[in-house]
Amino acid sequence: MRASNLALVLGEVLAHSGSVSRADIASRLGMTRSTVSRLVDDLILGELVVEGEAVGGARGRPAVPLMVRPGTVYALGLEVNVERMVASLVDLTGEVRAKRHLNTDVEQLTVEEGMAHLSRMAQEILDEMPDGARISGAMLAIPGLIDREGLRVLRSPNLEWDNLEPGEFWHVEFGGAPVPLKVRNDVDCSALTVLREAPGSSFLYVTGEVGIGAAVSMDGQLLSGRHGWASELGHICVDPHGRMCGCGARGCLETVAGAHAVLSLAGQPDIDGVLHALENEDPTALAAVETVAAALGIAIGAALNLLDLSIVRLGGHLASLRSWLRAPLQRELATRVLWAPHSGIELEFVEHSPSRAATGAGLAALGRVTSGPATWVDPLLKR
Ligand SMILES: [Zn+2]
Q: What range(s) does the HTH marR-type domain occupy (predicted)?
């Protein structure tokens, strides 16, 4: 009972860090003020929560705001993607406190070599940690299908990592003990970072890389499906007579809106070339964006009809194309989504950040602390 109540109270502090008092939490959770106060005291002694400056209320005692304590409990957030490796250190506030970034052609490396690089980057970060810091674990973001336990990469066509456990090649220690490693889909990790900026919100996140990744947030919870494989928007068919997709099916959204497809449609070597051609009103590039918008309209329209979401957040090269994509995509969705005349559909574009997935992986690894704070608090109470 106490353990789950501690998690509930910490959850309230996380959601409203800096603007929530003991009394607010008591009324939100329907607990007595004294119960909440005891739990908050434990979270403070356990170094997960800290009190801010009291602000005078109009009446009664001034409220003391509670906030998440920075710099005591950390997690490693990692990413291995086609052209980069990232290791970052994230604390409970969600801030990145240290980071290593390596641009490299991961396909040219064996798994052993790749994981050895990543282990070195992570170990460097941990060796610089202050005394008294604690580590909740490490999470690795991978573009691919991951098993339900978060240990095995089942399939990652872009990395050519199939049916293997990255943890077998991970050798990182902290305080003399091995740091446990888990694995999670990279787009889910990115979506967790997006979600941190809008806690509790519902949206479809679609990001354009070599493939098209997607994630669905319902009231702040990512939709995982039965196996954790939900939201494969990139493999929704937009043209049954279209090109073959890497997955073995024909005409998937990726074959029209993925990065390689966009470059080939626009006749440009890279995305900067596409943007330059669009700025010069090049007819091939303009037609390419219309084609991409039509394909996105089919797939995203289907998702919105199915899920009743009214916010779509677009990232990767889809965000780079925002000035040309917004109007035709908005038009497609207005036609295809049944309820569009009765509720607006908001298109938002997410700024490019090469460390978004790694940061989200760190947030995911901190889930061990936020879902079970007693394990982290109790050893300090006994001191
Ligand atoms: Zn496919």
A: 8-59
Write out the H or E segment, with its range, that includes residue 324.
Answer: helix 322-336
Which tokens in the block code for residue 354? Answer: 């090469």
**132 inside domain:** yes
Token reading at 198: 């809008």
Query: Is the confidence at residue 229, as pLDDT, over 90?
Result: no
Closest CA to 370 of 48, 151, 67: 48
Ligand 1 centroid – CA 222 distance (Å): 22
The 10 Å Cβ neighbour count of residue 361 is 35
Q: What pLDDT is attached to residue 59?
A: 63
Number of domains in the chain: 3
Residues 337, 199, single domain; the answer is yes
Q: Note the pLDDT tens digit of each residue in 67-84.
A: 999 989 999 999 999 889
Q: Average pLDDT in the 132-147 region?
A: 93
User: What distance in angstroms lies between residue 298's CA and the mean position of ligand 1's atoms?
Assistant: 15
Whether 341 is in a domain gets the answer yes
- Residues 325, 275 share a domain: yes
How many angstroms does the Cα of residue 141 sit away from the middle of ligand 1? 21
